[in-house]
């Protein structure tokens, strides 16, 4: 699984990079159908936003979360992505 992290209006520090990688690496346990993840971290005045585009076998998932700080935004994003992956996995089982 390839993880790409990009900053828009903010610099992606080593600490942020490590934090995002650690969080998203845990998703590998959900299944091998995740091919790549693109994470965009942005700051707009006082709002920190984390977005993820996840390429899975035969489909794409997208999630977005905002907060007043980047780390809670990333945590909320991980929760949303995790829920979407569980739904996608259930959908695969039904087919």
TrEMBL record:
One of its GO terms (biological process) is negative regulation of translational elongation. GO terms for cellular component: cytosolic small ribosomal subunit. Associates exclusively with 100S ribosomes, which are dimers of 70S ribosomes. Keywords: Translation regulation. Pfam families: Ribosomal_S30AE. The keyword Zinc does not apply. It comes from Anaerobiospirillum thomasii. This is Ribosome hibernation promoting factor. The keyword Transcription regulation does not apply. GO terms for molecular function: ribosomal small subunit binding. PANTHER family: 30S RIBOSOMAL PROTEIN. CDD domains: RaiA. InterPro entries: HPF/YfiA_ribosome-assoc, RHF-like, RHF/RaiA. Belongs to the HPF/YfiA ribosome-associated protein family. Short HPF subfamily.
């Amino acid at each position: 699984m390839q993880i790409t992290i990009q900053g828009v209006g903010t610099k992606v520090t080593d600490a942020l990079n490590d934090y995002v990688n650690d969080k998203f690496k845990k998703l590998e346990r959900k299944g091998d159908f995740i091919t790549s993840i693109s994470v965009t971290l942005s700051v707009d005045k006082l709002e920190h936003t984390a977005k993820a585009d996840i390429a899975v076998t035969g489909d794409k998932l997208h999630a977005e979360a905002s907060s007043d700080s980047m780390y809670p935004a990333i945590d909320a994003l991980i929760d949303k992505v995790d829920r979407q992956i569980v739904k996608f996995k259930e959908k695969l089982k039904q087919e």
